Amino acid sequence: MHILVINSGSSSLKYQLFAMPSDQPLCVGQVERIGLDGSFVRHQVTGADRLERTEPIADHAVGLQRVLELLSDPVSGVISSPDVIEAIGHRVVHGGESFASATRITPAVKETIKALFPLAPLHNPINYLCIEIAETTFPRATQIAVFDTAFHQTMPEYAFRYAIPEALYRQEGIRVYGFHGTSHRYVSKKAAAWLNKPDAKLISIHLGNGSSITAVRAGQSVDTSMGFSPLAGLVMGTRSGDIDPAVIFHLISRGYSPDDVNRLLNKQSGMQGLTGFSDMRDIRKAMEAGDQAATLAYELYAYRVRKYIGAYAAILNGLDALIFTAGIGENDATMRAMICNELAFLNIYLDPDKNTTSSRQIRDISATDSPVKILVVPTNEELEIAQQSYELLQST
Question: What is residue 241's three-state secondary structure?
Answer without folding.
Answer: coil
